[in-house]
Specification:
By secondary structure, the chain is an alpha/beta fold. 59% of the residues lie in helices and 10% in strands. The chain has 14 helices and five strands. Helix 2 runs parallel beside helix 8 and helix 10 runs antiparallel to helix 12. It is globular and about 60 Å long.
Length: 314
């Protein structure tokens, strides 16, 4: 009987350990996109954390290559970079001789071993495939080399993401969704107009001021990256972007919240489906800080098999 109990205990422990090993993690880091010169080093605490985490996959806020709805908006949308990239991607289809075998070989090659001609080929290949995240990565590599930019570019996503990708010898994985972003911006303007007299705009200004004031000391002592990733800061950013601060819930604010939540839901779907079909255990998501709370909620609610953790809570 004693031997039987011991056997069951060992089987239970073994099964528990195997389950723990198979559990896939999604760790989320929130960035501030473009930052002022005075806080150009704000990405460094996040980069130190990310290197220590040692991710097997890096997910970035760049549109999915096959997301025709998002690209149909972005080709004439808010971003000059996306407009130019879409135009280049469309034009290169007629001139670039894409070779699947050559692309696979070079895409799997160690970044340390890629020569300049191979970098140029990959830049054209990622343009052809409409893979904006890896196009940006290879352009960064061509411009700054394996050590990355000597001085911060002030574009946090790039300073953090591309230096990390080179360090880990990883390409990036796109996960953004911009299908309703145009409608979101229209709703934002509508909510702002509605909020002139009902106190909503004043409430938003208070939140903005509170967010700014709370960041002063962390910015002075080079701790802004960690400050932004505190749950309190992330909740505040989520509240502003989702119009959850409003005193009177007007039509424009309701529309904006709907489109914001829907975008987070689709981004979470893009992340989860790719993580779950991979064999990667440590997955890092780098995204605008205002999205972090929404992504966390969507991932935890709809994909319970994934362990979702915020940077400061890891």
């Amino acid at each position: 009987m004693k031997n039987l109990v011991t056997l069951f205990t060992l089987l239970f422990v073994l099964n528990f350990n195997l389950s723990a090993q198979e559990q896939q993690e999604v760790v989320i880091i929130g960035t501030m996109h473009t930052v002022p010169k005075i806080v150009k080093h704000s990405y460094k605490p996040m980069l130190r954390f990310a290197k220590k985490y040692n991710p097997e996959a890096i997910y970035v806020e760049s549109p999915m290559a096959n997301d025709s709805i998002s690209w149909n908006y972005l080709k004439d949308g808010w971003s000059k970079n996306y407009i130019q990239f879409y135009k280049s991607s469309k034009n290169i289809k007629d001139t670039f001789l894409f070779n699947t075998d050559k692309f696979k070989t070079l895409a799997n090659k160690n970044l340390n071993d890629i020569n300049e001609n191979e970098i140029d080929y990959l830049i054209n290949a990622y343009t052809y495939k409409r893979d904006n995240g890896n196009y940006d990565l290879l352009k960064y590599l061509k411009t700054y080399g394996l050590k990355g930019a000597k001085n911060p570019t002030r574009h946090e996503d790039g300073d953090l993401t591309f230096k990390l990708a080179i360090h880990q010898n990883l390409k990036v994985t796109n996960m953004d969704d911009q299908q309703s972003n145009g409608l979101y911006h229209k709703a934002w303007s509508k909510c702002s107009k509605e909020g002139v007299k009902n106190g909503n705009n004043s409430e938003n200004s208070k939140l903005n001021k509170k967010d700014y004031n709370s960041a002063i000391l962390p910015a002075i002592f080079r701790g802004l990256g960690k400050h932004v990733n505190k749950r309190k800061s992330l909740n505040r950013l989520h509240k502003m972007s989702s119009f959850s601060y409003v005193l009177e819930d007007t039509e424009g604010c309701k529309e904006g919240r709907k489109y914001w939540n829907e975008r987070n839901m689709r981004m979470a779907k893009n992340i989860a489906e790719q993580v779950l079909t991979s064999n990667k255990k440590r997955n890092l998501v780098i995204v605008g800080a205002a999205h972090v709370i929404g992504l966390e909620k969507e991932l935890k609610t709809n994909y319970p098999n994934l362990t979702v953790i915020l940077m400061n809570e890891y």
